[in-house]
Amino acid sequence: MNPSSVSFRHMFRLTDDTGIVEHALGRIPRRQEGYSTDDQARALWACLEWLDYVPEKEADGLHSLIDTYLSFLLWTQNENGHFHNNIAFDRTREAETPSDDCLGRCLWASALAFIKLQDRERALAAKEILEKAMNQVANLQYLRGSAYAMAAISLLIRHNYPRDLDAVLAALAAKLLHAYRTHARPQWLWYEPALSYSNGIIPWGLFCAYEAMKNNELLDVAVESLDFLIRLSLNEKGHIRPVGNRGWCTPEYRALWDQQPIDVMKLALAASKAYEMTGKARYAEIVGKCRGWFYGENDAGVPMCNALEGSGYDGLGEKGPNLNQGAESTLSYLLTEAVYLKLNANKRGAENYAAYRC
């Protein structure tokens, strides 16, 4: 699939003047279930990645979506920098406890927006979100939120953001390394007693931190843990088999179903960064396998996306795909496509450079 054939039809279908609706019945938005700030951050991220590849006429549409998602983040961010995640369709806030994961996703999306958006007005909004959110980084407790924050801060450091962030990044990296030292064993090379959701985001965060800090311990742990995750994420045919959410995975048990698209996307993200940092071809192959999962290279041998609509199915069970096409699964599909496209564009650039040097 080439960039011109990737569809954003479903993304536009799910998005109204408030934001992207969280759930769908089939591909019809379920407005009664409202919105999540998580999904706005993911949607902003997806649009920013695809701006590099779409024709100019489609870029205008993506910029319109970017404005909607930035506006949502500005609206749901509290004065202390945290975000309210769950919003009803009538725009009222639902009761909840603040989420580290939500904060981390918003940090990453706003940092990427600040770096990538060329016009001052959009960058101003992204920076406002980013600066307030950074006030909460020291309070992050959970690994996935911390991994997102590491990726965001590493990106800012590498682009000379006008704020001293080295100590903040070092503290986050130390937290993840401590978790790894606490839980890793010879047959269990992981940061927690169980593999649950979005697992690839943790080694991805460490790869990003290594890129900024050049601390070899970060690279070693990222590689070791990602290799462990990859071994657990391949079936007998060599296809991707993410840990199912019907019980997750411990040293004693591994759930086969229900496999979630977001876990495939996070594995692709981590493998792509591993390839970028190490140059090892096996990681690029994993990215291709993750993309293949959406097109039928999976345990059920069925597509997990509707490419014509640009949508992803919500999960894979023993009876086949869940045909609902909500925001998370759709954005996981679109982001996996973008990761795959970016990796192959970078590979071609490296090959062309090597040929020129020869």
TrEMBL record:
Transferase in keyword set: yes
Protein known as: Glycosyl transferase
Keywords: Transferase
Family annotation (InterPro entries): 6-hairpin_glycosidase_sf (IPR008928)
GO molecular function, one term: transferase activity
Organism placement in taxonomy: Bacteria, Bacillati, Bacillota, Bacilli, Bacillales
Domain of life of the native organism: Bacteria
SUPFAM superfamilies per record: Six-hairpin glycosidases
GO-annotated biological processes: carbohydrate metabolic process
